[in-house]
Amino acid sequence: MNDIIKEELIRIGNELWMQGFTPANAGNFSVKLADNTLLCTATGVSKNQLTKKSIIRIDLQGNPIDENNDFSPSSEIKMHIEAYKCRPDIRVVLHAHPIYATTFASIGKDLNDNILPEATLQLGSIPVAKYGTPSTNDLSKSIIKPLQTSDAVLLENHGVIVVAENLKMAQFKIEILEHYCHVLYNLNNLNQSKRLTDSQVLQLIELRKSNKLPGRALIKYSNEEIQFK
Ligand code: 13P
């Protein structure tokens, strides 16, 4: 089973790298296993060059479990562990540096507009976690509050983190987030945009309810908001 998950992580690493989401060694991924241990990517590895050896099993304190491995856990593993602590409902954490989402993360404002239905439906409003130096407790603690409302978070002046109940949904979320930020960037350049109307947003809220979409999302419209948990 662990081998199948490792193969999935290798595939996702290749795909996110090819999309430009993880330049150099950027990004780190983890999966929580049934026995409450984690599989996580090693530090300093290109996500285009992941191997089964560079995906490491660790405990929830971040200590490697399997011996004789030349690789060490990601330098940002504390952030993943914090995410699992504050979100017992999730099994996957993906961190990456996609260009457009990282651009908006470097403005430091929550993305509250409803422009694309898929982004509103799947992600809702996208909060920013306050800047913390990579690999420090400041970064780990910064994600606690935004993860209460959302599965997709911009890391201020850094990148993004998404959480989900499985790998497929986590990959979809990170791709929807980057696609949305790319469109927002283009709209800003065009100096115009057309937001969804309240009634269009309300239909998306109904859709999210009837499809019983898992995960968290805070959907805001006019002066109202609805929290999906
Ligand atoms: P690691 O190589 O230690 O996982 O760090 C990558 C990264 O994304 C730093 O922000």
Overall residue-averaged pLDDT value: 97
Distance between the termini: 29 Å
The portion of residues forming beta strands comes to 15-25%
How would you sum up the global shape?
A: globular
Number of strands: 9
String of helices and strands: HEEEHEHHEHHEEHHEE
**What's the number of helices?**
8
Q: List the bound ligands.
A: 1,3-dihydroxyacetonephosphate
Tell me the major beta sheet. 7 strands, mixed
What is the CATH-assigned architecture?
Answer: 3-Layer(aba) Sandwich
CATH class type: Alpha Beta
Q: Order of strands in the sheet with the most strands? A: 3-2-1-4-7-6-5
- Helix vs. strand class: alpha+beta
Describe what you observe in this structure:
The protein is an alpha+beta fold and 229 residues long. The protein has one domain (2-228): Class II aldolase/adducin N-terminal domain (L-fuculose-1-phosphate Aldolase). The chain contains eight helices and nine strands. It has helices at 2-18, 77-86, 99-105, 117-122, 137-142, 144-149, 167-190, 198-210; strands at residues 28-32, 38-41, 55-58, 92-96, 128-129, 152-155, 159-164, 217-221, 224-228. Strands 3-2-1-4-7-6-5 form a seven-stranded mixed sheet, with helices on both faces. A two-stranded antiparallel ribbon has the order 8-9. Helix 3 packs across helix 7. The chain is globular and about 60 Å long. It starts with a helix and ends with a strand. The mean pLDDT is 97. 1,3-dihydroxyacetonephosphate binds at residues 25-28, 43-44, 74-76, 95, 134.
